[in-house]
Amino acid sequence: MLCLALETSCDETSAAVVKDGSEVLSNIISSQIKFHQKYGGIVPEVAARKHIEVITPVIQEAMDKAKVSFKELDAVAVTYGPGLVGSLLVGLCAAKAIAWAINKPLIGVNHLEGHIYANFLVPRPTFHVSQFPFICLLVSGGHTMIIKVKGHGEYETLGRTRDDAAGEAYDKVARLLKLGYPGGPVIDKLAKSGNPKAINFTRPMLNDGYDFSFSGIKTAVVNYVKQLSVVSRSPDVSRDELLVNIAASFQQAVVDVLIEKTVRAAKEHGCQTVTIAGGVSANSQLRTQLLSRCQEEGLTALIPSFEYCTDNAAMIGCAGYYKLTTNNTSQRTLGLQLTTSYSLSPIASLKI
User: Fold this and answer.
1) Domains in the chain: how many in total?
2) What are phi and psi of 163, to 5 degrees?
3) Are 139 and 282 found together in one domain?
4) I want to staple 281 with a disulfide (CB 3.0 to 4.6 A). Which of 15, 71, 276, 299 is the partner?
5) Is 177 in the same domain as 284?
6) SS3 for the chain, per residue?
7) Quick count: other Cβ atoms within 10 Å of Cβ 53?
8) In terms of domains, do 317 and 180 share one?
């Protein structure tokens, strides 16, 4: 089965052709980071306009790289929410037009669900249905959630952030330290040269349920930096050394909370497999420490390839395949509509 998938929920325009839900024949991503960096974050109107400019050539490049024609496609999958409304509309309109033209099913995929299915894409260890149920830590710029995946299309949200998502905290701390945008990659890079034990930043709600709160860690960094501006630092510590120590200590606090809650959720809910997904799952320290901790606890950790951590259409194609083949879709007579809901309820499929 060949599925063309589109992803335009935020600032990446992506199109992919996925075969049988796991083999990625093409996965084209056009990033807008350079257009938003000067603003320190995503500007929704700019994002939507850029999607309009590149959506057609991105789709064509994906089809050309996969060496398939539109007539050979069996379905079209598209992110229909949550995300920026203007951005989502571009992808949804393009997907509807293609599905109508080739008279194939249109499959709506929740963006969060797409991230979960990044763990089913190869190259990676083979995922078998016997590994259900499993725990997924979905952590990105806009979402931080612990989800129990009971089966294809069956989800239970165990915990979510009560304020900032982990990725938001990274961006805000990077802005405070004048490191640029996006904050995650630059802090991860700096942290490699720092001492993660140099500063004991707070770890909110570490042992309290499965919900998260990262605003406290962010505020602790803000207060620490303000204190440094009032109290002279030791002449033995250079500014560069201080900066990398702040980055390393902040990142350690975030990673400690993410891993502790995820592993505890797996053990308390009888899940042998732990996965991560979302943009922050590309963080090197999170990946390394999760693998190590799961090995200590006798758990299996599955981590997607770096290329499937950030927003991409391949994960949408994978999720769409399982929706269509496992009958977890509901037929609709009306067109697929956008949603802003973070709920992982069953998603619709529309036969044009």
Assistant:
1) 2
2) -145, -110
3) yes
4) 276
5) yes
6) CEEEEEECCCCEEEEEEEECCCEEEEEEEEECHHHHHHHCCCCHHHHHHHHHHHHHHHHHHHHHHHCCCHHHCCEEEEEEECCCHHHHHHHHHHHHHHHHHHCCEEEEEEHHHHHHHHHHCCCCCCCCHHHCCEEEEEECCCCEEEEEEEECCEEEEEEEECCCCHHHHHHHHHHHCCCCCCHHHHHHHHHCCCCCCCCCCCCCCCCCCCCECCHHHHHHHHHHHHHHHHCCCCCCCCHHHHHHHHHHHHHHHHHHHHHHHHHHHHHHCCCCEEEEECHHHHCHHHHHHHHHHHHHHCCEEECCCHHHCCCCHHHHHHHHHHHHHCCCCEECCCCCCCCCCCCCCCCEEEEC
7) 14
8) no
Question: Do 112 and 145 belong to one domain?
Answer: no
Tell me the average pLDDT across 27-35.
93
Residues 185 and 321 in one domain: no
- Model confidence band, residue 86 (pLDDT cutoffs 50, 70, 90): very high
Convert the pLDDT of each residue in 289-305 to its tens digit. Answer: 999 999 999 999 999 99
pLDDT category at 346 given cuts 50, 70, 90 is very low
Which CATH number do you get for residue 61? 3.30.420.40
Residue 124 lies in a domain: no
Backbone angles phi, psi at 311, to 5 degrees: -60, 130
Q: For 111-139, what is the mean pLDDT?
A: 85
Domain presence at residue 123: no
What is the domain extent for residue 336? 2-118+309-351
Looking at the structure, tell me whether residues 83 and 150 fall in a common domain: no
Task: With a cut of 50, say whether residue 200 has pLDDT above it.
Answer: yes
Q: Is residue 276 domain-shared with residue 227, that is, in the same domain?
A: yes
